[in-house]
Amino acid sequence: MEKVYVTPLSTRYASKEMNEIWSADAKYSTWRRLWVALAETEKELGINITDEQIAEMKAHVDDIDYDVVSKREKECRHDVMAHVYEFGTKCPSAKGIIHLGATSCFVTDNADVILMSKALEIIKEKLVLVINNLRKFALENKGITCLGYTHFQPAQLTTVGKRATLWIQDLLEDLEELEFVQSHMKMRGCKGTTGTQESFMKLFKDEEKVKKLDKLVAKKMGFDRVFAVSGQTYTRKLDSRVLNVLSSIAQSASKFANDMRLLQHEKELEEPFEKGQIGSSAMAYKRNPMRSERINSLSRHVMALSIDPMMTAGTQWLERTLDDSANKRICVPEAFLAVDAILILYANIASRNSCLSKCIKTNLMQELPFMGTEEILMNAVIKGGDRQELHEKIRVYSMEAGKEVKEYGRPNDLVDRIARDESFGLTKEEILKILNPDGLCGRAVNQVEEFVKTEVDPVLEKYGNIIKDVTVEVNV
């Protein structure tokens, strides 16, 4: 069996199952299955094709001599006709009826829809697995209070689990979009060279049979729907739609990976690091977040690839031009292979992510006096203080305390400064009680539980049959 894959992604990052979908064998055997379906349906609708011819074709669906194809393509400069020729050498009795009435896009376009549909199913399975892994992480860490960050500056407190729900929510949006795309996948069907079905009208001389041919071939290939009209190709909006959802997944994964890299720098979360893993060839101590960095790298590629079909869809001339072909052969498989690799990495990190709770608490306590200033202000006002006056004092004291930390490396003394100011009417003990971190993260814990129950669990229940409770390993 020929195992020619389309990109270096195949040998390093993507899964075997995704590679097989975009292999030469899968593509060209699908072409042959389409030719078989066409011949079978033409026979059923009255064309003089024998059972022996169809049986001969079926016997050689996976028997492809790529050397013969390559030699013939160099002569005729046409990949479809090279395969028609090679198929005919294997099926001499059926040679005359292979590709009968069809144009090249009958096999190229219909096969692409079939392969994209299979690949979307693999992506969906991996996406659901990531969501399931993140659900566990969110619930396990729903009560681990940590600094929130806006502009990557310390902000109001949140919890580790609450932050994970943001990652999950993005993926749920992606899954919803993917489901929509899957539900709207259509075959090109049997439309002829410019979409008018003229060749099939000449063949059958019966419009109803031509209409049946269109739908019956699609049904034999597992599709209930065909595009109602087409030019020579199905609308290239379909490729754009498919790569849009892949780009959307890449965007979500890249956001997660960026968060991981920032939090690993803060020593709050840490991606998996194997026992013998080397972080740097020069600096032996390093634990670089290489998996997250790889997600970012591959995601960038997918987002860039998604522009290709947009431009192709917007620049097709009339019934069709061939400037879609080379571009399409590259960007579609590469986008699927890259997203497959991204989700393998994402599932791996999500299942083995280390929450460094002690470092989280250390970071939190360093900033806690600043985080609790609003609570301090409200309590001081309740005791009779002037809000505007106290707000200004807190602002000044905060700047001074920040200077102590940043310029002199001294402890944060904001609490002491406020306690010494009698206009606040609060003792140090009262201020420290106000600054209990577990009381400063609002509804975060309940939000995690409610989100999982109402948004995540129904999805996982729907896809319970495809969830694999395994740790996903990364090869390199």
Folded structure, characterized:
With 476 residues, the chain is mainly alpha-helical. The protein has two domains: 9-272 and 284-358, Up-down Bundle (Fumarase C, Chain A, domain 2); 373-434, Fumarase/aspartase (C-terminal domain) (Ribonucleotide Reductase Protein R1, domain 1, Orthogonal Bundle). Helices cover 64% and strands 4% of the residues. The chain is built from 20 helices and four strands. The strands form two sheets. Strands 1-2 form a two-stranded antiparallel ribbon. A hairpin with a 2-residue loop joins strand 1 (145-150) and strand 2 (153-159). Helix 7 (104-140) runs antiparallel to helix 8 and helix 7 packs parallel to helix 14. The model has no long low-confidence stretch (mean pLDDT 91).
Brief description of this entry?
With 476 residues, the chain is mostly helical.
- The average pLDDT score comes to 91
Domains, number = 2
Assembly level? single chain
The CATH class label of the largest domain is: Mainly Alpha
Spatial separation of the terminal alpha carbons: 26 Å
Please tell me how large the radius of gyration is: 30 Å
Please tally the helical runs, counting DSSP H or I stretches of 4 or more residues.
20
Instruction: Spell the H/E element sequence.
Output: HHHHHHHEEHHHHEHHHEHHHHHH
Shape: elongated
Question: What's the CATH architecture of the largest domain?
Answer: Up-down Bundle
Share of helical residues: 55-70%
Strand-pairing-aware structural class: mainly alpha
CATH superfamily of the largest domain: Fumarase/aspartase (Central domain)
